[in-house]
Write a structure and sequence with these properties.
Chain lengths: 248, 248
């Protein structure tokens, strides 16, 4: 992309091992691309993770919502656009558009990020970053999907216990944000994905989990096509919550 | 890459969600890149999967061996070179070099492929492909690692049963070649990867497995740093075998 542009745009191709049995790009791979694009664009704008790390700060993903009209098929080219919608003192909203090979926007995503001090793990003031230059990147490009909502799982059935493994753990020693998505989608049978596709998907990242933790998955069916999921660890501490809305 | 070159070269960056807790590119992601490069180069040479599919044929991966002196760290650029070493009637050998950001070859891989008829699943004659033009791409670039060897697991301990899930399944309805690598590495504790790194890794793909199959993992410790693994399904049919050699 052009350096310092308010909208970053990055090109991809749907690789063979990144599509599911229907030939569509998996949501966990799309999530990975979205988070990478967030990183690329933040770096291009001067507030990437490398710059933050130098000052002992880092970005933490708090919320992610993805809504799709369509999704790339195997070998199809697509691009992801990303821009900053809002900067508050403690959080910033970054949005995304998924652009198909014909140049049509076929999906959108919203994310909410905080900056934390790597030692204290406390939230830092975004408006002091680069003398608040981050606000210069705020952009009014439209993102026509709802903001991440509140997810409440109080009647969920305990459907799975999963002990985290080597491949779950990222460079920070945490279960990585993408692996949660993969484990959540694996709660559903392949028949579900044969009959339906995901229309909207939300993640709320609440607490970190670590190697060897046993994650307990609670699934609450809100309707035939809508499910809320909560992942807990230990004595019941919430790790993350998710909402999955299918369409036929 | 330059079209029709005997050595294809493709550039990558080690993405944050593609490195493990030590910050090194995971072997499953490297395997994914290798197989993609095989596909890119085959397509550039005119015998890619799209061309084969038109004629109701497809490529099938039979063996993969990877040997590494070093592996890219998070955010590091690297490239993968690939070329055809041999073409026999029923198999072809394709090799790879992993080139680090300084341009040094720090790892190699060897792969063995067959072409099958998509209806009969029978092996096809590679020398009839494009009037045997595939042999024009044979290249004598050196690949200084041993060929994939025979792996025998006859005293393996039954260490895991795993039921395949949505995220394991590729567009052909099979457990994908990369997911086996991920599940095999997950047999080892994180302490193993803290003390050692993988020096050599081999896969022999024997039979396909499908959604809902229960895969049984058998682990045989050949020495402190060398393990042979066999994955079986059903009544004991072998799905694949693997050899993992660690170094300190």
């Amino acid at each position: 992309m052009e350096k310092n542009s308010k909208v970053g745009s990055y090109n991809f191709v749907a690789e063979p091992f990144h599509v599911d049995f229907t030939g569509r790009l998996t949501l966990s791979v799309l999530g990975n691309h979205l988070l990478n694009c967030a990183g690329f664009h933040a770096a291009d704008c001067g507030f990437g993770i490398a710059f933050l790390n130098e000052n002992r700060y880092t970005w933490v993903l708090s919320r992610l919502a993805i809504e799709l009209e369509d999704i790339p098929r195997q070998y199809e080219a697509f691009s992801i656009e990303t821009w900053v919608e809002n900067v508050y003192r403690l959080f910033t909203d970054r949005n995304f558009a998924l652009v198909n090979k014909e140049g049509k926007e076929v999906g959108y995503a919203r994310s909410v990020w905080a900056m934390i001090n790597m030692e204290t793990r406390k939230l830092a003031d975004l408006l002091t970053l680069h003398s608040s230059s981050i606000v210069n990147y705020v952009c009014d490009k439209e993102c026509p999907i709802a903001k991440p909502g509140r997810i409440k799982v109080d009647k969920g059935a305990h459907v799975l216990d999963y002990q985290t493994k080597y491949s779950d753990i990222d460079i920070n020693g945490h279960v990585n944000s993408i692996k949660y998505i993969e484990h959540i989608l694996d709660l559903f049978s392949i028949e579900t994905f044969r009959e339906k596709r995901i229309k909207r998907f939300e993640m709320a990242y609440v607490a970190e989990s670590y190697y060897g933790d046993t994650l307990s998955f609670y699934l609450q069916e809100e309707s035939e096509d809508q499910f809320d999921i909560e992942i807990r660890k230990g004595a019941g501490e919430v790790v993350c919550r998710s909402k999955v809305i299918f369409t036929r």
